[in-house]
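Posting this for the archive.
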Amino acid sequence: MDYPSLVALAEDIAARAGRTRVRDIIMVDWHQLFLRLDEVDVQISAHSHPNFMVLVPHSPRTSREYPFARALETHLKGTYLLRCSVREHERILRLSFGSVQGQIKRKFHLVVEIMGRHSNVILLDEDKLVLAALKENWDVSTARPLLTGQPYQFPPSQGRRFPDSPEDFRDGAVVRRELCLPPWLIDYFCRYPEDFPAYRDALERRQFDFARVDTGGKLWASVVSLPHARTVETFDSVSAMVLGSAVEREESALERRRRRLVRRMEDAIVAQQAKMELLRRQLEQHGDTGALQREAQLIKDNLHRLRGGGRVRCHDYVHNTDVELELPRDILPRVYMEKLFRRIRKYHLSLPHLQRQLEKCKNSVTYLEQERYYASYLQSLEEVLHKERELFPRRGVTERPGKRSVSRERERVKKLDFRGYLLYVGLSSAANEKVTFGARPDDWWFHAKDIPGAHVVLACHNRPAPDEESMAMAAALAAFFCRNSSEDKVSVDYTQRKHVRKPAGTPPGTVYYTHFKTLLVGREQMDAARRFLESSSETVS
């Protein structure tokens, strides 16, 4: 959020929320809080990306217990918003609050620093002493200590100024260091300096025109119209403009992180498949133990007449025949026989371990393929980050005891109503586990055949057997929420829930089933399932 946008926001807050009472403090996350005023909410995000401050309408939100939220509620709840100002040429906005109770007057200041990863929110008393800070600096800082009870100091100024005339944009490299405008706007005025006087006049007169503009193929948010930029979208307030840009940045960050997660899962699948191939080659060596056992037994039976290596003749007492063997010349026959028996014993001891490792790799590949498919249903950056930590934990790093993630408990179950029957669709491995093993034994269970996809349960609840249309819709949903949903036909297996079992030690969502039948779902049925999803009211829990 740039300096011109903060100037426009300060005007908007003064016009829409000035002299209104603070009704509540809502902190939905450690970096995001809402000041609930009479008419609107002031939303503040102090995350490193995105960071912003906007006005939003009232909406039901659940507050979480944070020390900073309790401090704000103690001091600001019931006060009136008196003033909103922006520090000159800096991205720092100050909200002043006050109240009168009898003869006691109280005054507080909330300083919002929108400065990228250095963004912070600080609560001050009337004497500018720090009462609470969102990011307290407990270390000794020579630049600016932020400790409760200490005087507040503004961040070290970068010494930037607002340009005076078009001549300030002659040297682009210099103005980037000296001016307080965003880089994209500096580049624009370096190309079109004749547009700057009108921009400065509109900013001083507070004549704002909020729009998203295209300058050279890139989209930017501007609070004043620019003649040489193409207007892509207009907004009625700076809050709508900033919030839209912040949501877009968050979505782009979500997509980048999701692509990274999928790429890491694909690399892990390739590594596991290579390990499986190595284990298979090692298991194939166990097929030669029969020949090794026969050779070692022949040497043992004829050891009394073997004098050296080379090509020797041994008698096979089992089949009563003579067999020729090639023995090494550098070691004695007894030593070579003992070496063969040790090798055979080693193979036999390692066989169960290799089989367990191969089965573990197969389960890991199955689980990663399922999670790679379900990555497209992760709707927030927190969910993606949690899934990445779950699948690829950093070595030597463990979560603190008692720390619970919102996305950890979000199992993403879609609940639908079709002709009076409830349909449950799992949109993650954990959700599949919940859908399948939370169903009753007589409920019908659907899954795409031999490919990753959603578990779909058609709940009967002791009612008569569902009709063909309900069964067909459940099968269509299973085909729609599978990896091969883009194909024209998808095979879907279905059986009753009592015939579905989970193998011991397998990852979430892994099952095997019996007594099943198979339906072939076509493109028309999958399109009907998509239209049903769009038209139906569903809940995700």
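Confidence is low (pLDDT under 50) at residues 400-410. The chain has 13 helices and 23 strands.
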